[in-house]
Specification:
The structure is a homodimer.
Chain A lengths: L12 E2 L9 H6 L10 H18 L5 E5 L3 H12 L5 E6 L2 H13 L2 E6 L8 H11 L3 E5 L1 E2 L4 E2 L5 H7 L3 E5 L11 H4 L3 E3 L13 E5 L1 H19 L17 H8 L11 H17 L1 H21 L15 E5 L6 H12 L1 E2 L11 E5 L7 H17 L9 H9 L3
Chain lengths: ~400, ~400
């Protein structure tokens, strides 16, 4: 393998639905020297990570830690630790990530029921309540924000419904944690997971997770059965065993607890990154950070509308950090994305499933949820649309976005 | 969470069985700017990674890529993609990591048979051959080097036996890749996996993997069934479906192929690190690198013996990069490790299972398989042992190690 040179990526401005540009402080923290995984300095960092992520998740849960993998690893660890083969589960499905939850549950061998909304809408709480009553699920699972549709599912009151029905509640906040309010305790969520690569402004590869006492009890009971499996005095055919070693939250919790039982070799550099992401979030303050994302979403929406683009989805439930706009008739969406990348070094997002080829998605999250990056993106897009023959743009998108940012 | 300061770990010299200190170039490469996961520059980097790891694995396999997680994630992805529930599998078990392979297979629902050697020995090829004949396994799985016992299992000829028996062969080279020769093609291995945190001199969190054409066919056939699952026109109760989305190698291969089908968000920073690890290995040259590890193991062994310590395990099969020595009678092994860390900032390894409390493990791998680091470690250990009242040390360990390094 000749001619593989030193790493030297172009400096793209990543204004799609994620991954986005990491905060430079996060990347610098990740260049720190490694430590052994039972080094007292390392376990101190682990305890700090647990403490840092509690307020970010809106929780007092002692079990707040990291899964070593991307956001999807956190999702799978949560679902496989909550649901056993044969369990009935209910998925709140309003986009691609509801489909993902269903698929993972099916692979686990669970019986999956869904309560659905069309793409661009959310599921009303009373529809979820009716589905819980009808289905009697052991686990209810929902995305918070689903970047595929740009919708954020309202979650107030869902935890109470789940507890009344004896169901465990899982929430995927990959796309919202650190950008929109996540309130694990107030929601009554049993497991909440995320990733670094969106509003937390880090690279993909570490999945923050929080686990309620109720879910921890459930997992510890399953773990007890597994210990039998490991020592050989257990018939392993009963379906209670967690079907993964890597994603067995009970074993991972034993490593993050004072017991410090060995599991895998902790991904130290990613832990350093996750720690720095959280430090930056708490230094800025959650309220300030959410307000910055709200202003960003408002500015992006106003700018897109000002250039004559129609937004996708229900305004009332739009995520603050990602906005989808219809590709105007006669415009080649991929040609626009290419020009944005090649002429301006700006990445905007394509779309999936029923929206493939119909909308672009514009992210303004984490380190990129900043006024100048939104203005630059809108100005570039307006120029590219003109170059691609789109006539409806009035050339005032940047001004409209600036006014919206300033709340005018 | 107040008082969580900037990351500032002590500079420990990590001379245990891993993780070890990353090469500084690797950590610097990881601070490069992020890219979108379908950016042409990003997919170029992915293709380069594939090309870089082929010679390191000793393979021509097109399917050579990364799993996003620690070494253990690579192991689980391999096993869950090869074995289905109910399959009979054979594990070559000569230490802790054979037990891990067995445990993961059991969680998958496979029927596990083992062919065993006592800790400190390896399994003779004819014993494996007899076990294959007796068991008729669908998959044979073995560690290459097992750091728990410091033994390296000879693998020449095993692939032929597996092919004759219609079995797929999996080899875990976490502890050896980049330090001892790995010859996936010559061994006839179908999947080989590793991690960065040992001889590749990177941080834990990315798992290089190579997949033979035969294994890829097997996985693609399973994937076909899953696509039915995803589109809903398939009865998902037949046990052929891979029980994990995150570890479904078929889907990960679709992302690394020219199809570039979306799966999870690639852990870009870890990919940058894995790429730099491989560049450094190939710049040094495999033969030079293996010779450096061989000299390191020889020097470490000679030094330990010169201070009167008895080594654990069969000399003929000792890994070159990690050496275990019995803790002398009357010496508190943990007190020695603490003094090594506190007085010298050097980490040496403890042990597991039947060896817990009985041996220390000394790693000299990757960036740390260097003369001065071995001499420094031995000199420090000799001083600590004297301080702890160990009388048998003649004070010549460093000289003996230097002679052994130089082949005298």
């Amino acid at each position: 393998m000749r001619n593989v040179g030193e790493i030297d990526p172009p400096q793209r401005l990543l204004m799609g639905p994620g991954p986005i540009n990491a905060h430079p402080r996060v990347l610098r923290a990740m260049s720190a020297d490694l430590l052994g995984q039972f080094d007292p300095e390392m376990t101190t960092y682990m305890n700090e990570v647990m403490g840092l992520y509690r307020p970010i998740f809106g929780t007092e849960n002692p079990w707040t830690f990291l899964v070593d993998g991307t956001a999807r690893a956190g999702i799978e660890a949560a679902l496989i630790s909550l649901a056993s083969p044969g369990d009935t589960v209910l998925v709140v499905n309003f986009g691609r990530f509801g489909l993902l939850l269903s698929e993972i549950f099916k692979r686990i061998g669970a019986h999956v029921e869904t309560v659905d909304a069309p793409w661009g809408e959310v599921v009303p709480l009373d529809a979820i309540a009716a589905a819980i009553e009808r289905v009697g699920p052991k686990v209810v699972a929902t995305p918070h924000g689903d970047t595929s549709t740009t919708m954020a599912q309202p979650l107030e009151g869902l935890g109470v419904l789940c507890r009344e029905a004896g169901a465990l509640l899982y929430v995927d906040t990959t796309a919202t944690l650190g950008g929109m309010e996540v309130a694990a305790d107030r929601w009554g969520a049993d497991i909440v997971t995320a990733g670094l690569q969106k509003c937390l402004a880090g690279p993909s590869g570490s999945a923050p997770i929080t686990v309620s006492a109720r879910a921890a009890d459930h997992i510890q009971r399953r773990k007890h059965v597994e210990q039998g499996l490991r020592t050989g005095d257990h018939d392993d055919g009963d379906g209670i065993i967690i079907g993964s070693n890597y994603f067995d939250l009970g074993m991972i919790m034993d490593y993050w607890s004072d017991k410090r039982l060995n599991h895998h070799t902790e991904a130290t550099t990613m832990l350093y990154g996750a720690r720095e992401c959280a430090r930056i979030v708490l230094e800025e303050g959650l309220a300030t950070r959410f307000a910055r994302h709200t202003a960003s979403g408002r500015a992006m929406s106003a700018g897109l509308r000002a250039m004559g683009l129609r937004l996708f989805g229900d305004d009332r439930y739009r995520m603050t950090n990602v906005t989808a706009a219809y590709i105007p008739e006669g415009v080649d969406g991929e040609a626009v994305r290419r020009r944005m990348r090649e002429d301006f070094e700006i990445e905007i997002g394509t779309a999936f499933g029923p929206l493939a080829g119909k909308v672009w998605r514009f992210g303004a999250m984490g380190y990129n949820a900043r006024k100048h990056k939104i203005l630059i993106t809108l100005g570039a897009l307006e120029a590219v649309l003109r170059a691609e023959g789109h006539r409806s743009s009035a050339g005032c998108a940047v001004d409209a976005a600036l006014d919206a940012w300033n709340g005018i």
